[in-house]
Specification:
alpha+beta; Alpha-Beta Plaits; 2 domains; 141 residues
């Protein structure tokens, strides 16, 4: 049975529709270049450390730990550093009294540069003997 004219017109319309759809999709779809690191750099790695100090810690020792923590900012990969004391009256802190937060561009900066860095190791050696518990929480923002 030969094609009728309406079949030819329908085929032409469908063919044209698909060609135009492919053309629009190819040229106007937002392409992501995964070889470029810019898509990954829009995320920030947040590093949070909660500290529960021993009850026997003195104010002078707390001040020394606070001053030592600010040296962590000297590590180039550390961004947006903050050290603070809990002021909440809700009683939900589970004994954690202080917080250290910082941001990193990526996990390599935190794991391979910050953690083994001599300044970080020195700080850890200063505050660890005075802590009862430590909680570390990392997340992507």
């Amino acid at each position: 049975m030969p094609f009728r004219n309406t079949d030819k017109v329908s085929f032409f319309m469908l063919f044209t529709f698909y060609v135009v759809t492919l053309f629009v999709g190819y040229y106007f779809y937002d392409k992501k270049d995964f070889s470029d690191d810019s898509n990954l750099s829009r995320y920030t790695l947040n590093h949070i450390v909660l500290l529960k100090f021993k009850d026997s810690i003195s104010n002078d020792t707390l001040k020394m730990i606070q001053n030592a923590s600010y040296k962590l900012q000297e590590i180039d990969e550390v961004k947006d550093f903050y050290y603070g004391k809990n002021i909440s009256l809700r009683g939900l802190d589970k004994g954690f009294t202080h917080i250290i937060t910082m941001k990193f561009k990526n996990s390599y900066d935190m794991d391979s540069i910050y953690l083994p860095h001599p300044i970080h190791k020195e700080f850890s050696a200063i505050f660890r003997p005075h802590t009862e518990d430590i909680l570390v929480y990392d997340y992507w923002d």
